[in-house]
Amino acid sequence: LVRLRARLARSQGTLGKGLLAVLGRASLDDAAWEEIEDTLLAADVGVGPTDELVEQLKTRMRVEGIKDPNHARTVLREELIALIGPSNDRSLKSTGADGKPGVVLVVGVNGTGKTTTVGRLARVLVAEDKSVVLGAADTFRAAAAEQLQTWGERVGVNTVRGPEGGDPASVGFDAVQKGIADGVDVVLVDTAGRLHTKAGLMDELGKVKRVIEKQAPVTEVLLVIDATTGQNGMTQARVFGEVVEVTGIVLTKLDGTAKGGIVIAVQRELGVPVKFVGLGEGVDDLAPFDPEDFVDALLE
Ligand code: GDP
What we know:
Layout: H1 2-23, H2 30-42, H3 47-63, H4 69-84, E1 102-107, H5 114-127, E2 132-137, H6 144-155, E3 158-160, H7 168-182, E4 186-191, H8 198-212, E5 218-226, H9 230-243, E6 248-252, H10 262-270, E7 274-278, E8 286-288, H11 291-299
Parallel strand pairs: 1-4, 1-5, 2-3, 2-4, 5-6, 6-7
Antiparallel strand pairs: 7-8
Helix pairs in contact: 1-2, 1-11, 2-3, 3-4, 4-11, 5-6, 7-8, 9-10
Bound molecules: guanosine-5'-diphosphate (GDP).
Function: Involved in targeting and insertion of nascent membrane proteins into the cytoplasmic membrane. Acts as a receptor for the complex formed by the signal recognition particle (SRP) and the ribosome-nascent chain (RNC).
Membrane topology: Peripheral membrane protein
Domain SRP54-type proteins GTP-binding: 273-286
């Protein structure tokens, strides 16, 4: 975790430094506040949250008569944490009921890091002594099932696959059936992310979920978003949010962008919390998202 924090700080440091440099000035005139706004917008924080943060900062700097840069830093830290939502429940909902496994659906556009996320989540769960089965319901992308199975072998869990080009919903069904038969704790289901048409996506994802729920309730739907895609990622988030009830966000590739403000924008857009962040391609590079750690890394 320390290593992850250091990596995050390296990629995100410019945002924090930029804000602190301006806030530390002797007088904060309109130009200074504009600079703060520009810095936040450039980091993909989004217009609404930027306005909100700037208003809060302006008020507090004035009311509290803040002159000392350290004090300004404390205020900025507090307000960023407040904006991200420190009290959101960010735990993975993976506990089943009635002796059945919890079922976690992982959705998102191809290339965002879905399969990698499923593999790394399996590793996290296994490390917590939970038994896991993987479902390779991304039957569209030729290499996806293979890739998932490789992850499964690495982590030491079984992967349920179907024929290439087969019905994703039936793979989901089979995976949950195996999970129940084997008495495992969690079934993690990888899905296809073809954004060809919204109706097509809705049909496919909706069906996967419905068919799975003939056997056990889906306890979590995680939407994977690539942090480097900015507005594009936001558009995807909106579409997925409309077709399936997303309960948590995984923001991957935060190591590849200095625009960490997307964390704020994306959860504002969907109204659900970021639960995990990806900070590299390695097996251990998925971290639970912690607002305080994140802000500390920004301001390091
Ligand atoms: P999928 O098509 O959504 O299943 O995406 P994959 O899981 O195949 O991932 C696509 C690419 O993104 C792979 O090369 C991954 O190694 C890479 N990737 C996934 N997560 C991260 C991350 O957090 N950071 C970085 N740098 N690369 C990532």
